[in-house]
Amino acid sequence: xxxxxxxxxxxxxxxxxxxxxxxxxxxxxxxxxxxxxxxxxxxxxxxxxxxxxxxxxxxxxxxxxxxxxxxxxxxxxxxxxxxxxxxxxxxxxxxxxxxxxxxxxxxxxxxxxxxxxxxxxxxxxxxxxxxxxxxxxxxxxxxxxxxxxxxxxxxxxxxxxxxxxxxxxxxxxxxxxxxxxxxxxxxxxxxxxxxxxxxxxxxxxxxxxxxxxxxxxxxxxxxxxxxxxxxxxxxxxxxxxxxxxxxxxxxxxxxxxxxxxxxxxxxxxxxxxxxxxxxxxxxxxxxxxxxxxxxxxxxxxxxxxxxxxxxxxxxxxxx
Length: 319
What we know:
Layout lengths: L4 E7 L8 E3 L4 E7 L6 E6 L11 H4 L5 E8 L2 E13 L5 E6 L2 H4 L3 E10 H8 L4 E4 L3 E11 H12 L3 E4 L2 E4 L9 E5 L4 E9 L6 E8 L5 E7 L4 E8 L4 H15 L3 E9 L9 E5 L8 E13 L3 E11 L1
Parallel strand pairs: 9-12, 13-19, 15-17
Antiparallel strand pairs: 1-2, 1-5, 3-4, 3-20, 4-7, 5-6, 6-7, 8-10, 11-12, 14-18, 15-16, 18-21, 19-20, 20-21
């Protein structure tokens, strides 16, 4: 079967112009991960996509304009990105940079102080108009003066290891992976183009874990376990007040990291769709003993007139 690549860019109507739909691009690049805070996209338009001579570029595209990117094959297009224009080049071919809904949160001022705050309470106060899916934990006393919502979220990541990202118009915070996330099947010898995967045996893995528990008063308790010369992993826990209990939890997590499995990334076709947080079920006819499931940590999408429509899928923890 012949697969024809197709694209559709929809720039929403605004006070300057009507909705603008573009169905031909030179390239699209998208990067998405729970580690990034902000997902990003770059669009390059060819010279003859629209008549740039009859309309000034600044009348068509400005910072803050909303855009949705649809990509696919044979008329089966999926929405790959939704966000806002952050930069428009002055050159032809035209390059447009976008960020997801987090861009709006970068514009929202915050000046908040709370006692005995939980994470859901804090986020509900600073984002009353957004749906929020947050880990239910106590943060204690918090104070974020003269900042923005996005900077507040960055502080939560740095101080509490609570990662935040946008899922469409919904903010997710403190929940990196979900047990009910979708699963995508990858046969390493059939629907995978190439891999940068490395299989490791448990006995060859050397890891040092630094376990840190944040208390309700903001203080921290920490223990270190594992190999002193191993790869350092910092794990966060909350309201564990006993060092022995913290050590026990860290040892359980160490077992999770110290088991046979893959690390690295693979490159697949544009479809099937996979997002960060999905589970990748990886099978091999050549090495069936290495079959396993892994959470997807990040996804990069390449779409261009080479022609090429690819997903570079970085795998994370084993499920």
